[in-house]
Amino acid sequence: MTKKIILTGDRPTGKLHIGHYVGSLKNRVELQNTGLYDSYIMIADQQALTDNARNPEKIRKSLVEVTLDYLAVGLDPEKSTIFVQSQIPELNELTMHYLNLVTVSRLERNPTVKSEIKEKNFNLSIPAGFLIYPVSQAADITAFKADLVPVGSDQLPMLEQTREIVRIFNQIYNKEILVEPEIYLAKEGSGRLPGIDGKLKMSKSLNNAIYLSDEPEEIKRKIMSMYTDPNHIRVEDPGQVENNTVFTYLDVFCKDKEKLEEMKAHYIRGGLGDMKVKKYLNEVIQDELQPIRERRKEFEKNIDYVYKVLEEGSLKARKIAAQTLSEVREAIGIEYFNR
Ligand code: TRP
């Protein structure tokens, strides 16, 4: 039986946080452990460099941090191929071939690219490499002939562009070489986690994240500072659980749903203080993160092993990308000397 192929990845721009964990990491580990897929997990260092060219040290450091986070949550190099984008030069050649199939205006219309340009204040100084990263992402995905790409919904436009490139390529060169991937969205309820300040997105730049590697006191401090219902001033006041970050987190992390429903009812009625709810959330999150942090500490003692995982994964991934590239070159008709 040929297994379906999964490819996914992260930009190494910092340690991973619990938003990554519920939005994608947990899901990847589950998919990995079904044994039904061939999983490739890519650390997209080149993509990270498209807006960090002047700060490669950050990317280099984050490469190790992200790998430690992967291993800590249970991604297993025996079951998933973990590799580094920049170590697969074939991806760059694929990107060059695909760039001819995409217009500049199509790239400028990509909604994710558009909002990132705003976010990063590029104004008129958009690095060319940044503008075209959706095409390089199409190379990442198609090089492995991935069927499924488990990512967050912010990546939908990337998948759409990839699918377009696949269709145009296969049509022009009249061969079914590239595979149209499907997005695999994380289960409902485990989607995007807001920041501890209640902002829509948890992110390092917003300084509102709880990291997988945070120490217990740090986690507690962050939870105690969390955004709740601004109108819930005295304990007796009736409170709101919608848009109340503490309850949003409990919805995601708390396994005792009965207890949670009781707490919500009590909070809405009035008489349940924020402090108590936060203390409970702290217990729940500490229980979830403790084993992850401990495993991470074990791997931290052996950084040589971490690099070995990446090196071996990259060697294996490179062979597959090279095979796809040679099919692509053949289809375009530039294998002049293979007569
Ligand atoms: N763009 C993704 C992110 O920002 C990272 C990424 C790069 C990726 N290449 C990929 C994800 C290929 C899935 C498939 O998180």
Automatic annotation (TrEMBL):
CDD domains, A to Z: TrpRS_core
Gene designation per UniProt: trpS
Biological role: Catalyzes the attachment of tryptophan to tRNA(Trp).
Keywords of this entry: Aminoacyl-tRNA synthetase, ATP-binding, Cytoplasm, Ligase, Nucleotide-binding, Protein biosynthesis
Keyword Nucleotide-binding found: yes
Residues binding L-tryptophan: 140
Subunit structure as annotated in this protein's UniProt entry: Homodimer.
Record GO cellular component, one term: cytosol
GO terms for biological process, alphabetical: tryptophanyl-tRNA aminoacylation
Residues reported to bind ATP: 11-13, 19-20, 152-154, 193, 201-205
Gene Ontology molecular function: ATP binding; tryptophan-tRNA ligase activity
Catalytic activity: tRNA(Trp) + L-tryptophan + ATP = L-tryptophyl-tRNA(Trp) + AMP + diphosphate + H(+)
Protein name: Tryptophan--tRNA ligase
